[in-house]
Description:
Shape: globular
Number of strands: 9
Helix content: 25-40%
Strand order of the largest sheet: 3-2-1-4-5-9-8
Radius of gyration: 15 Å
Order of helices and strands: HHEHEHEEHEEEHEE
Low-confidence stretches: none
Strand content: 25-35%
Distance between the termini: 32 Å
Mean pLDDT: 93
Number of helices: 6
Amino acid sequence: MTxxxxxxxxxxxxxxxxxxxxxxxxxxxLLIGKVSDSHASVVDVGGGASRLVDFLLERGYHDVxxxxxxxxxxxxxxxxxxxxPVHWVVSDVRDxxxxxxxxxxxxxxxxxxxxxxxxxxxxxxxxxxxxxxxGHVVISTFAEDGPSTCxxxxxxxxxxxxxxxxxGEGFEPLQTMRxxxxxxxxxxxxxxxxxxxxx
Length: 199
């Protein structure tokens, strides 16, 4: 999982044909909207060229950070929203060292690419360091009956209970749910979602 690999995927396929593309990120917007308003700081981890940033800006959010290891993906998103107040960070989440905290940590389908236990532990340490008390985590992964690979890479699948367990101590689960996502190619994919509050 390298920047060159994902840059190549976006360049070859295009942002609207990757399997995770959503014209409207309904589940993300629903869960973020439950726990925040436009004054909240939101980080979209692995956001790439996702449309989530567009919708957050439309809803008045003015402290949005998008992190992705693909410059190609972030360039596509930035071209859509122009000079909007967005912080663009080109970084692998395994290397990223934010210098601030965020009211909402959002991750749709990045965490499940971390199949190494050390990378998983580092990810959750980063979440704990980046989300203050009273802040929230909105995260989605492939469900247990979802694909075992994505874009040619292995993934770690989770049940709702397994995702709660992975989050660990210090967070209060508020909601879990399933989502049946239809890829641009017409293939169904099962996801699980977790919304949690930092104690």
